[in-house]
Description:
Elements (H helix, E strand, L loop, with lengths): L21 H11 L13 E7 L5 H10 L4 E5 L11 E7 L16 H5 L4 E4 L1 H9 L3 E17 L13 E14 L5 E5 L7 E3 L4 E4 L11 H12 L8 H16 L4 E5 L3 H14 L3 E7 L7 H12 L4 E5 L1 H8 L5 H23 L4 E3 L4 H6 L27 E3 L7 H10 L4 H4 L19 H20 L8 E15 L2 E14 L7 E2 L4 H14 L3 E6 L13
Parallel strand pairs: 1-2, 1-3, 3-4, 4-9, 10-11, 10-13, 11-12, 13-14, 16-18
Antiparallel strand pairs: 5-6, 5-7, 7-8, 8-9, 15-16, 16-17
Amino acid sequence: MVDSTEAATAAGRVRISDDREVATYLEIAEAREPGRTLNPAPNAPEAVVVIDYGSQYSMLIARRVREAGVYSELVAWDAPASALNHLRVKAFVLSGGPASVCDPGAPTLPPYVLSAGLPVLGICYGMQLLAHALGGRVAPSTQREYGHAIVNISEPSNPLLSELPVAMPVWMSHGDRVVELPPGFRSIAQSDNSPVAAMADDAGRLGIQFHPEVVHTPQGSRLLRNFLFAVAHCNGQWTATAFVKESIETIRRQVGTGRVICALSGGVDSAVAAALVHRAVGDQLTCIFVDNGLLRAEEPERVVRTFREHMSINLRHVDAGDRFLSQLAEVTNPETKRMRIGETFIRVFEQEAAQLGEVNFICQGTTYPDVIESAGSGSGAAAKIKTHHNVGGLPKDMKLSLIEPLRNLFKDEVRRAGKELGLPDEMVYRQPFPGPGLAIRVMGAVTREKLAILRAADWVVMDEVKKAAMYYDLWQSFAVLTDTRTVGVQGDFRTYGYCVALRCVTAEDAMTADWARLPYDLLAQISSRIVNEVPEVNRVVYDITSKPPGTIEWE
Length: 555
């Protein structure tokens, strides 16, 4: 028994010993952080909130929830309740994470998760944290459980486990385990190394030690659907049609009678963002396509033609290649490249806006993976991977207000929205292209010579991938010009040319990816063409690194 007066630990967590002391836990937490209660705005949309504890899979949880037709957002564990006021929260999911609840300073459970009285599903660290907060005990396992495991379901009648195999293959990744259940909880599934592989009480609070969001848990999506519909009773009405309708109304309210410029890159993100804004405010939008000198072969011409022919939007084409290249002169640090490109973009837009008269807003095609990789969630548990020029590279003294209608969408959701808006397949299903362009595919300093070499090599890659009818099977396929020179022999002469790397990946979204197993004949054809058609290159290598541990781009 833990006396309530001693409940607050040095790490700021609270332990309770029985159901009567749940109120004590909430009272202490509320006294420590007053005002942390949910207060949804009128007509707020239904949502399931994923509390992020720093797992590499956190984003996948939100994605799986949305795939089931329920809107979901990822929220940092230390975010205040006010950060959720734009949502009508139906349930919480607590993600996994690298910490141990036994460690001083470990991420804690927000008071509103329990005080809201809503269903809760804790995953891995999330389950341990839930057990810890409600009076259970968590301890290090004698044997770490990582990889494939079999979970034996002992309570198949539980709504969370309905219609799942009694012996279910899952993916485990944990070093701690629940060794004593909180009062009122029972173990509903077990594995060889986890007597509590899943737990539940009668108030809709559940925990699972494994990861249902990864493909290595074959029945994971079904389990999450059980939680969403059988436990949380969500209505499942999150669709591309609903998103488009809601976004148009939101943009109209935000813009009012103001004028908007939209940064076009030619990719699907900026295209869908522009289409949404145009549908909302019509001629109040002017799209600006900046040729930054960092695009692929023939891309500027294709972008201008596509937008003017298919979208009938007022488009201004700005050739700013010299300006961008001057800002990148002798820059080798990838983060510096991104920051300078982002700032230059904004300065060009501001100058163009000045020629249009009074302009109030700038629209960008920022997506959810951009935000998360730039540590936009605000969670101290999530590490920043890289700065995206349209998230973290914007100058602080920017004069225009941002509109980011796709900020909470995954790439496949962006594409569904694009189809809903009537955009052509050529645009909707185009492979993603990074905002900083070829600058982050040229290793080291960016020069006109290197860009020309890379464009020629990249053209070969794209041409051969399309000939092999694999373009739409790959998330991305491109060439990287490394900063490495290698010795070669071409036409009986010794050469000292560049090494080009091929990068082809498959993915559901940009958060995780696997290297594509291209046919050897296709790789051979690409390599042969590059070294024969691009004189400066004498060696081609293939990148077989997945993400994680690597990223898709090299910089």
